[in-house]
Specification:
Layout lengths: L2 H11 L15 E8 L6 E9 L7 E4 L6 E10 L2 E10 L3 E14 L3 E5 L3 E3 L17 E4 L7 E6 L4 E7 L14 E4 L8 E7 L2 E8 L2 E2 L3 E4 L2 E3 L2 E7 L4 E12 L3 H16 L10 H14 L1 E2 L6 E2 L4 E2 L8 E3 L6 H15 L2 H17 L10 E3 L4 E2 L3 E2 H20 L5 H17 L9 E2 L5 E3 L5 H15 L2 H19 L16 H16 L3 H19 L14 H4 L8 E2 L7 E2 L5 H12 L2 H13 L23 E2 L12 E2 L2 E2 L1 H11 L4 H5 L1
Parallel strand pairs: 12-18
Antiparallel strand pairs: 1-2, 1-6, 2-3, 3-4, 4-5, 5-19, 6-14, 6-18, 7-8, 7-10, 9-13, 10-11, 11-19, 13-14, 15-18, 16-17, 20-21, 22-33, 23-24, 24-25, 26-27, 27-28, 29-30, 31-32
Length: 675
């Protein structure tokens, strides 16, 4: 920031008084600055806060050694929070990295930790190869990993939480030639760091600028790399201001910690809808190109080729997937419904062919879906997942219900689906959970219950469609399990198929599952399920970005003007954003009305508008080879799935599920109409 802007900011902070609950005093704060001369190791200068009188500034930060810069600080009381603004002025050209630590007063062993969209509790569901307490009890990370640039520490004993959030304009990013060690930025960045540290048994909030990551940086799925510390040039005579807000509040448990912190993040950042030139009708018309271009009819089951594709060509592959990530059956239903609405016989013919061929050739010997088939490689996945099976049944119940409304019956399909649902009942554990993975003989491959809520949806739908109370009873048992093991414990895990960790989809599915049961119950029972849907919704919301990550020139997503607000991070293991939303916007809108919570509906609109930004259309393909093949692995931070890194997609993607997700987002009220 230029000096004249700096002085304006200083004058705005003149006369502020250090009052409030947060004891931001020199004895509770430690600060340091690291300075680097190119070609030499950086030197760290511990800083001491000296109180000033009759000055524009409240504190000067000084070192025992001479430094080529000056550092001043003001602390402003703002709505019960403390805003800390640091002013750094260079006396000569200097490369710097500044940081602070604040004592929370909480014992580290009593604490749970929260960094939105990245860190929950202690990340102990995650493997040691990903950021977790398995590797260290202290972590500093770059802000663009997080759905809000914030760290919160929750003291489980004293029921208090303290957080730090960055309050600045995020409009710059710079490239580096290295991703570990001491790196000099090629220009200016807006990205700092945040995190928590265990210092002598006490929990500390840590933050600074520009970014650094300690003890490891997470560069790829299950690959921790050496730490990184970035240094930005501050030329002689130039100044920069940096602002953070410190907040402390009470919370009964970790669930309330996440809720109150999400509300605070939302109110602080106030994300607005993204303006795009596309109407829902236009988006569906563009996405329908996927139904045409990806249709494969030379295999025993016809399908939409939507997995293991290359962004550079979008050529069909030999892989047919019923559920995630291909979502062939849901795409077929969407294509059928849309095709009849728009009188598109090409779409309806292909969709009906998919349903017919899956009825003939799409099942295992005992009657489960063949979830994943590689036709050219002559391979059928023998291990089933409750998630894919459930997503297949979900799609088919939508299809059967739609067909019944059109006066068309499918007795053979109904028999197949009832047979699968009855096998679901046999798979369900006494505690109400479903095993994550299993075989045709019902032997269990993965007993984890994290994917249980995916089964709730088709069970509730089947109760409605077949009028069979057994399915409703089973669905309620799943919610008993979810309430006991996930929702009340604030422990949402292992719903994704390719990761074992804390993830967005477990909370999103749990909230949606409770919403489904709320739709078919009344009175106190409905109120109970609605409350569970709301509690889980805050965890799902916590994965969605409330701010816009900056990109450097030359990083495609930045050049396209992508606004990350409204996009969701995936999991601790898979640190990228995507458009996984499906019916969650409906859940948020329903909860908004139920609880008169405007934030839910407003943020649902942010999600709905923002997720359509990368629509590949003629003349603006957004890095994708074909119109309507919506991108998947959107890499927004220093992490990649194998190729390309921040600002780009991975070279392999799965548009089958992205098209299905956006289609449901653009088809509001689907579940309520079904019931």
């Amino acid at each position: 920031m230029k000096i004249k802007r700096l002085l304006f900011g200083v004058m705005a902070l003149m006369g502020t008084v250090c009052v409030g609950a947060i004891n931001y005093m020199p004895e509770n704060v430690s600060a340091s600055i690291s300075l680097k001369i190119p070609g030499n190791d950086a030197k760290q200068y511990p800083l001491c806060l000296q109180k000033l009188k009759d000055n524009y500034f409240q504190y000067q930060l000084v070192s025992s050694g001479k430094m080529p810069l000056t550092i001043f600080q003001n602390v402003e009381e703002k709505g019960g929070q403390r805003r800390v603004t640091v002013f750094i002025t260079a006396l000569e050209d200097v490369y710097f990295n500044y940081g602070e630590r604040i004592k929370t007063g909480y014992k580290h062993d009593n604490c749970l930790f929260y960094m939105p969209g990245f860190w929950y509790r202690r990340n102990l569901r995650s493997p040691k190869e990903a950021p977790s307490f398995h590797s260290s009890d202290s972590w500093l990370v770059r802000e663009d990993r997080l759905s809000t640039p914030l760290t919160a520490i929750f003291d489980t004993k004293n029921k208090k939480l303290m957080s730090v959030i960055r309050i600045d304009k995020f409009d710059k990013e710079a490239l580096t030639t290295h991703k570990e060690g001491e790196v000099i930025l090629s220009g200016e960045t807006s990205i700092g760091y945040t995190g928590f540290e265990n210092i002598s048994g006490m929990a500390m909030l840590s933050f600074g600028f520009p970014y650094k990551e300690i003890p490891k940086t997470y560069i790829r799925k299950l690959i921790l790399a050496p730490p990184v510390e970035a240094f930005q040039l501050l030329s002689k005579g130039e100044s920069i201001s940096l602002t953070w807000e410190i907040s402390e509040r009470e919370a009964a448990d970790f669930s309330e910690c996440v809720q109150r912190t999400w509300e605070y993040c939302y109110d602080t950042n106030q994300p607005q809808s993204v303006n795009t030139p596309y109407t829902p009708d236009k988006i569906k018309k563009v996405l329908s190109n996927f139904f045409v271009g990806s249709y494969v009819d030379d295999a025993p089951t016809h399908y939409y080729s939507g997995v293991e594709m290359r962004t550079a060509t979008c050529e069909d592959t030999d892989v047919a997937e019923v559920g995630f990530v291909g979502r062939t059956l849901l795409n077929a239903f969407n294509a059928l419904e849309y095709g009849e609405q728009e009188k598109r016989t090409d779409l309806t013919a292909n969709a009906n062919s998919i349903f017919d061929t899956y009825l003939q050739n799409g099942f295992s010997s005992v009657g489960f879906f063949n979830e994943v088939v590689n036709y050219k490689r002559n391979f059928i996945e023998q291990i089933h997942s409750i998630r894919r099976q459930s997503e297949g049944v979900y799609a088919m119940l939508h299809y059967l219900n739609y067909e019944k409304q059109q006066g068309r019956k499918h007795a053979a399909w109904e028999k197949r689906i009832k047979g699968m649902l009855d096998m679901f009942l046999c798979l369900q554990n006494p505690d109400g959970s479903f095993p994550r993975k299993f075989k045709d003989d019902f032997s269990i491959v993965d007993k984890s219950g994290g994917s249980t809520p995916s089964a709730t949806l088709p069970l509730v739908m089947a109760y409605k469609y077949f009028k069979d109370e057994r399915y409703l009873k089973s669905a309620k048992r799943t919610l008993d399990y979810l309430e006991r093991e996930l929702i009340l414990k604030s422990d949402y895990f292992s719903s994704t198929l390719d990761a074992n960790c804390e993830d967005k989809e477990a909370s999103l599915y749990a909230s949606t599952a409770a919403y489904y049961l709320a739709l078919v119950t009344k009175g106190t029972e409905q109120a109970h399920y609605a409350g569970l849907a709301k509690k889980a919704a805050y965890f799902a919301l916590s994965w969605y970005y409330t701010w816009d990550v900056p990109f450097a020139q030359g990083q495609m997503l930045g050049d396209l003007g992508l606004k990350t607000r409204g996009w969701g991070n995936v999991s601790v293991e898979n640190n990228h954003i995507d458009v996984f939303v499906f019916e969650f916007a409906d859940v948020l809108n329903w909860l908004s009305k139920k609880y008169d919570e405007k934030r839910f509906a407003d943020f649902a609109q942010v999600i709905s508008s923002s997720m359509c930004q990368l629509l590949p259309i003629e003349g603006n393909l957004c890095g994708i080879a074909k119109v309507g093949y919506y991108p998947e692995v959107v890499q927004h931070t220093n992490w990649d799935y194998g190729k390309n890194g921040k600002g780009f997609y991975n070279d392999i993607f799965a548009p089958g599920w992205t098209v299905a997700s956006l289609w449901e987002l653009l088809s509001p009220g689907r579940a309520e109409r079904f019931f």
